[in-house]
Design goal:
Blueprint (H helix, E strand, L loop, with lengths): L2 H4 L2 E10 L2 E10 L2 E2 L5 H21 L19 E2 L1 H12 L3 H20 L3 H4 L10 H10 L6 E2 L2 E2 L7 H5 L27 H12 L6 E2 L3 H7 L1 H5 L2 E2 H10 L6 E2 L1
Antiparallel strand pairs: 1-2, 1-9, 3-8, 4-7, 5-6
Helix pairs in contact: 3-9
The structure holds iron/sulfur cluster (SF4) (2 copies).
Amino acid sequence: MSESELRQIAQIAVQLTDPEGTIRGQVQVDTGPMRLADLVPTAYELTNVLGARANKREERAGRKISCCQGCAACCRQWIPVSPPEAFYLADLIASLEPQRREELLGRFDAIVSELERHDMIEGLFDPKIDDGPRLEIGRRYWKLQLACPFLVDESCSIYPHRPVACRDYNVTSPAIWCSQPYDHEIAKVEMPIPFSIPLARLTGELIGSKPPLIPLPLIPRWVSENAGLGQRTWPGLELFRRFMSHLGSKPAET
Ligand code: SF4
Ligand code: SF4
């Protein structure tokens, strides 16, 4: 039987909890062989749902969201991504037409060289993802003012595909303060579930080691060093259920 004949779409009921209560919905899961990267669109979709609710809560409380597309001071921060997101974004880069891909990879290389020059590569890989943001390395990264390689003309060139960390980062403090985040108290909108963490935890469980988070500019290098993991597949339902178990959610097939 061919791979396409083995594939079926299952409707999976999911429930998530945020400060307003329980959200129930359904997602479609391909039951055929699934790579880690294939989980990312669903993680993005769930992030968007929780993010929209979090932003509405802020607005109901009288706090206006300052963020909008094209506002980009925050795109010079240290952005950690989970392995499934790294594989997903590497696929996206590989799908670009050659000239655009080469220009983009050149920007990645330039940032990596700068980080090597400052001996920061090791410090940016933080296996202790439960320990919260590593303020000192974040501050050092910020001081270098390295624009994200995906930033073009001060706008995100992959906006619909941007990582969870970027989707989750919304503020109600004035946008101008984001240019001096260490001189002001940035009012970040609290997100109940940062989905990069369960994606990283799932990967840690599958590879039997500490859950890794990858600094965004290191994506091409990390993906090429872990190409086997990127191509490995699991039965779709099993992989999705294991992912949901890291959210504390119990999906049920319908
Ligand atoms: S976090 Fe700050 S810089 Fe980034 S989009 Fe929001 S307001 Fe703009
Ligand atoms: S991926 Fe897009 S939104 Fe995220 S830091 Fe890069 S340019 Fe900014």
